[in-house]
Amino acid sequence: MAVVNTLRVKLPSPPSGPAASSVLDKDKDTPDSHVARDGRLIRLTGVHPFNAEAPLTALYDEGFLTSVDLFYVRNHGPVPQVLDDDVLPWEISVEGLVENPFTITLRKLVEEFEQITLPITLVCAGNRRKEQNIVRKTKGFSWGAAGLSTALFTGTLMANVLRKAKPLRGARYLCMEGADKLPNGHYGTSVKLNWAMDPNKGIMLAHGMNGAPLRPDHGRPLRAVVPGTIGGRSVKWLKRLIVTAEPSDNWYHYYDNKVLPTVVTPEMSAAEPAWWRDERYAIYDLNVNSAVVYPQHDEVIDLTLPRQDYPLRGYAYGGGGRRITRVEISLDSGRSWRLAEIDYPEDRFREADIDMFNGRLDVFSRETCFCWCFWTYSVSILELRNSDSILVRAMDESMMCQPRDMYWSVLGMMNNPWFRVTIEKGDQWIRFQHPTSLLPGTSGWMDKAKKAGGDLLNGRWGEKGAGLEEPLTPPVEQEIQMTNPDSTRLFTLEEFKGETSQEKPLFIVDGHVYDGTAYLQDHPGGAQSILTSAGSDVTEDFMAIHSENAKAMMRQYHVGRLDQDARKRLGASANEGELLASRSEFLHPKHWAKATLGHVKTLSHDTKLFRFIFDEHQTVGLPIGQHLMLRIKDPITNENIIRAYTPVSEGIQKGSVDLLIKLYLPTPVLAGGKMTTALDKIEIGMEVEFKGPIGKLEYLGRGQVTISGVHRKVSSFVMICGGSGVTPIFQVFRAVVQDPEDTTFCTVIDGNRLEEDILCREELDDLSTLKRDSCRVIHTLTSPSADWTGQRGRISESLLRAEAPPAEDRIALICGPGAMESFVRETLKKIGWSEDDMVFF
Ligand SMILES: Nc1nc2c(c(=O)[nH]1)N[C@H]1C(S)=C(S)[C@@H](COP(=O)(O)O)O[C@H]1N2
Ligand SMILES: [Mo]
Predict the structure, then answer these.
(1) Is residue 282 pLDDT above 70, yes or no?
(2) Distance, CA 310 to ligand 2 centroid (Å)?
(3) Of 236, 407, 771, 772, which one is least surrounded by beta carbons within 10 A?
(4) Ligand 1, CB within 6 Å, residue ranges
(5) One of 27, 69, 256, 515 is an active-site residue; which one?
(6) Residue nearest (by alpha carbon) to ligand 1 atom 20
(7) How far is the centre of ligand 2, averaged over its atoms, from the C-alpha of 229 (Å)?
């Protein structure tokens, strides 16, 4: 690079290091088998077509300029392959309403036109769409908040090329078309001609990115770059420029990159094409937006460590060249706001007038802002601890501010409500939750609020409680029927595998078999997106990616379902299944491990013992005192139900785990518990999933415990429980009593209503006989029969005073219904316990 004048400032430079040079295994069987990529990018639409963003933190940490490796990618279909020898001879045409139509090669574009280099942030209109999809599934896939990237683009101003063609009177639009052939024709769109002619808009024809030729994913060898405007207008693999009187009539111009009015449902948009024909709803300029990067999703601050201030950090951008003029932070749900500091790295280029990458770098002559900026706000940990959430909003120079409420629309685009990070609190820590998470098996606060039944559009982020209005109409959440009741064929695994081929791709969603043949030509992601699914179970990806409309279409391709045996074997052969099966412990903290229901034993009118079976060589892998999570798909609503349990079986037991579960059965006035209702319906041999361990207490044996990771010595336990709360307590009690060397004293106080309600009674009583001197089990009943000889009444202050006084190295373990737990907490405090010595499960 030739430096023309001496700089007083240091310019941000692209991240160094070589770009990815090998083709990932995943891509080898796809039409993109010629495209080298970086494995860190998170794929958002299965394997192919390639739509991907970097982990948000990795993107931010690279700084102002994004490496070509982490630059987000939005491909509607396969990447056109352009060999080295074909780069310079690449031809584009300039045609339509022009006096002087011509074609020109890339070589001539570089030779004949002035070359410029500009820093530009591209943002997909779908950035942050996952938040919309959680409110209600849109017709678009789930982008997180990293659907944007910044690079130094080198090329020529579009205006210079157009001027040479001499647009005629009446010409108002510049249409652009790419070389990628998609199910609905080539990708194409348009922008206003007088924008393209305006040097202030910076619209360019780019062949270079961060000082190297464009990468295949980003439009090699030539693309349009339209700064300040959604990425969708920056046509890649550019072949044609067509000057017209009307906006582009390309299919993708009509059916993509629009914000339809919020009243338009996915069904209406499919049934009434007029909505799409309204150019007023087309998106051009980006809207003002911002996001929090630090704290990251799931980041934990340990409050026991020395406290420093925490620098909150993130990004913001505006559209149409407008500068971000403020970024504000609220720690009190939007009642008050504080000003964050903003850094504009783009301005450092403004002061330079140099040559960079063989193009003139002249940001100075424009007043526009075409790049993201970074905000910071330092806050004390104490304030974070006292707050429920961090809210961020940005404003641009036209005083447009991000709104509090989401504007939900069919395509889920331009999502820009205040970015909210919630703060969860424990005794010794706080943890942050972003709205969504892209990692499998994880979720953000939005998923949780929604699952808890909150209305995410109630102006309070789905919180419930005093002063909040219930929505006038319940949110529409309809179940889509994907199966055809007439398709009753049962497939064996051999039949399914034998009949599937590249001509006739059969695939599985939710145990049902679909035949994609008739849809190969019409799939918006190209035939490849179906062909890569042939012969496999694509449930998770399919459900995550597809809209309600797409799901409704599945009915016509439904051909039957797998039989039990095929389901089991297919599940077990999935990669993840193999990975999990090769471990000596069944539970995995990150992956859901599959087990089947072995048998069910009824213990009382409302409790059953469930045995779940897994690999016979594995133990469950649960430390004493910890819990596991059970996930079941409701057979009717398909909804995932997750609850934490502590097994009653021992950790050394191989091949199975036993859960004692109290059933909350429906009554004429009350619906039953969700898990109960689902468990009631599952049959022997059916599949469920487990994950874990979780929990703050671990009993290491012989008087040693850790509580939230902190090691402690115990000489006696008081274990207070009620109902099924006995299960975690039982684990610890058994561990103490079964070890002859363990001298820890235990007092179990178990409160129930009727004698037959006492769970694990025999086991508890039998175990206590092993250590008569050091272990006691006290049962108390609120409705005892006449011949009951044990304690009577609720767990009371006098009972606790008598049996559970505080003592040196004594810890209370408490598990039971909420009301009981809070009574015990208050009472123990009253009789002299410190809260540090109580553990609630
Ligand atoms: N020819 C072509 N151009 C295209 C697309 C495409 O699929 N084909 N996707 C568009 C969309 S929606 C976006 S957001 C940007 C993404 O550019 P990138 O992949 O280089 O980040 O390219 C745009 N240009
Ligand atoms: Mo996009």
Answers:
(1) yes
(2) 34
(3) 772
(4) 71-76, 122, 124, 178, 180, 187, 217-218, 231-232, 234-237
(5) 256
(6) 218
(7) 10
User: What is the end-to-end Cα distance of the chain in Å, rounded?
Assistant: 64
Handedness of CA 712, 718, 721, 725 (dihedral sign): positive
**Mean pLDDT in residue range 35-40:** 97
Q: What are phi and psi of 747, to 5 degrees?
A: -125, 120
Distances (CA, A) of 715 to 392, 742, 749, 836: 49, 10, 17, 15
pLDDT in tens, 100-125: 999 999 999 999 999 999 999 999 99
Q: Give the closest residue to 840 by CA, choosing from 832, 831, 826, 830.
A: 826
Give me ligand 2 centre to Cα 96, in Å.
Answer: 26
- pTM for the full predicted model: 0.63
Please name the residue whose Cα sits nearest to atom 11 of ligand 1: 232
Altogether, the residues listed in the chain come to a count of 841
Instruction: Quote the strand ranges of 589-708, DSSP E.
Output: 593-604, 607-613, 627-633, 640-645, 656-662, 687-694, 697-701, 704-707
Omega cis (within 30) before 693:
yes
Q: For the chain, give the percent of residues with pLDDT over 90.
A: 64
> What is the pLDDT, as a whole number, of residue 522?
84
Mean pLDDT, the chain, integer: 90
Average pLDDT over residues 430-439: 96
**At the topology level of CATH, where does 289-452 sit?**
Immunoglobulin-like (2.60.40)
Rounded Cα distance between 612 and 511, Å, is 20
Q: What is the pLDDT of residue 2?
A: 41
Distance CA 646, CA 729 (A): 9
Give ranges for CATH 3.90.420.10 in the chain: 25-277
Cα separations in angstroms, 47 against 67, 221, 727: 22, 24, 43
Task: Convert the pLDDT of each residue in 197-235 to its tens digit.
Answer: 999 999 999 999 999 999 999 999 999 999 999 999 999
Centre of ligand 1 to C-alpha 361, Å, is: 24
Task: Give me the catalytic one of 75, 257, 416, 752.
Answer: 257
Decide: helix, strand or coil at residue 819.
helix
Which residue's CA is minimally distant from atom 16 of ligand 1?
A: 74
- Tell me how far the alpha carbon of residue 220 lies from the centroid of ligand 2, in angstroms: 17
Cα(838)–Cα(708) distance, integer angstroms: 12
CATH topology of domain 584-694: Elongation Factor Tu (Ef-tu); domain 3 (2.40.30)
Q: What percent of the chain has pLDDT over 70?
A: 95
User: Which comes out higher in pLDDT, residue 515 or 485?
Assistant: 515
Whether residue 369 lies in the annotated active site: no
Work out which ligand 1 atom sits closest to the CA atom of 75.
7
How confident is the model over 321-328, as a mean pLDDT?
Answer: 98
CATH number of 25-277: 3.90.420.10
CATH dotted code for 697-840 = 3.40.50.80
- Is there a catalytic annotation at residue 257? yes
Annotated catalytic residue within 32, 51, 124, 721: 124
Q: How do 687-694 and 148-157 pair as beta strands?
A: unpaired
Q: What pLDDT sits at residue 571?
A: 64
Catalytic residue status for 124: yes
Which residues of the chain form CATH 2.60.40.650?
Answer: 289-452
Region 490-571: CATH code: 3.10.120.10
- Closest ligand to residue 233's CA: 1
Q: Report yes or no: 225 and 120 within 8 Å, Cβ to Cβ.
A: yes
Which residues belong to CATH 3.10.120.10 in the chain?
490-571
Lowest mean pLDDT among 109-118, 163-172, 401-410, 555-564: 555-564
Q: What is the pLDDT of residue 1?
A: 41
Residue 124 marked ligand-binding:
yes
pLDDT interval class at 632 (50, 70, 90): confident
Specify the pLDDT at position 223.
98
Distance CA 84, CA 82 (A): 7
Computed over its alpha carbons, how large is the radius of gyration of the chain? Answer: 31
